[in-house]
Design brief:
six-stranded parallel β-sheet; 14 helices; elongated; binds nicotinamide-adenine-dinucleotide
């Protein structure tokens, strides 16, 4: 049983924290929103009043926050997790944020002698609830081996992606592929409709041909061929268009900083931006097909 401080109890953090409780760990919880924190007022859980209060005496600190600015505030500010952490604590930031901020937080942790991993996830709210997330972790081998049993209580696949920041690098590269492939899949289904080719037939053929992808066979963007995909429930997420937009922005920022071209990533980002501007950012990202049909 490990003493864990969990900071950020939103859509992802709350079910992740619940799985740690189920695994028998001792939790101290903090969220700046009292409503979010109240969701987990279960016996044996300590509701903390601040980041400093939550991390006091914790062996492991886990955060699940919206973006780099929130991670900076939680870890680097006065009274933050790095200043307040117990000697020898292990820090695990599971948020999806920019690589530069992730590496800055790693440096500050190392300067205080604390082990850290950036460990963003794939799998969404469903994966968080089912403890079937994929974690991609950046940091030292020693930190990774120490974190493995904790991450395994919240996920099914835990991969060490390399040094500090490499978890975030893996996450944005993965979602760069995914964001682009989903738009390509949507374009093909819209064209098939116009050509009189039934979606079930396109699915049957392409799922066994070279057009096969996760976007097609796990997340098919039209209702019918794959009953579990969000298209069958009016594009209820899943993973929202706005979240895909956020990750593609991070990928573009990274590509720009690395001075490499990412023309399809840039185009995909603009298309998910159009989806958000059309007021559909809260729908599943496969709902981008509705925008392509309208246009
Ligand atoms: P969310 O907005 O539901 O939750 C974030 C929580 O952090 C909120 O409750 C907020 O009050 C809290 N918070 C913000 N600043 C804080 C601070 N300074 N101190 C304490 N608490 C603070 O977001 P989410 O959907 O849970 O996503 C969290 C992270 O996971 C994001 O980085 C997101 O990109 C990533 N992610 C989300 C999904 C998904 O499907 N939702 C999938 C993969 C990755």
């Amino acid at each position: 049983m490990t003493g864990i401080a969990f900071i950020g109890l939103g859509n992802m953090g709350a079910p992740m924290a619940r799985n740690l409780m189920k695994a028998g760990h001792r939790l101290a919880l903090f969220d700046q929103s009292a409503a979010a924190a109240a969701k987990l007022s279960e016996p044996g859980v300590r509701a903390a009043g601040s980041v400093a209060d939550a991390v006091k005496g914790a062996e492991v600190v886990i955060s699940m926050l919206p973006a780099g600015e929130h991670v900076t505030a939680v870890y680097l500010e006065k009274g933050g997790a790095i200043e307040s952490a117990a000697k020898g604590a292990l820090l695990l930031d599971c948020s999806t944020i920019d690589v530069t901020t992730a590496r800055r937080v790693h440096e500050a942790a190392a300067a205080k002698g604390l082990q850290m991993l950036d460990a963003p996830v794939s799998g969404g709210v469903g994966g968080a609830e089912a403890a079937s997330l994929t974690f991609m972790a950046g940091g030292s081998e020693a930190a990774f081996e120490r974190a493995r049993p904790i991450l395994s209580a919240m996920g099914k696949t835990v991969v060490h992606a390399g040094g500090p920041g490499n978890g975030q690098a893996a996450k944005i590269c993965n979602n760069l592929m995914l964001g682009i492939s989903m738009i390509g899949t949507c374009e093909a289904f819209v064209l098939a409709e116009k050509l009189g080719l039934a979606p079930e037939k396109l699915f049957e053929i392409s799922s066994r041909s070279s057009g096969q992808s996760w976007s097609l066979t796990s997340y098919c963007p039209v209702p019918g061929p794959l009953p579990t995909s969000p298209a069958n429930r009016d594009y209820k997420p899943g993973f929202t268009g706005s979240m895909m937009l956020k990750d593609l922005r991070l990928a573009q920022e990274a590509a720009s900083a690395a001075r490499i071209p990412s023309p399809l990533g840039a185009q995909a980002m603009q298309i998910y931006q159009l989806m958000e501007t059309a007021g559909e950012g809260g729908a599943d990202f496969s709902g981008v097909i509705r925008l392509l049909r309208k246009r």
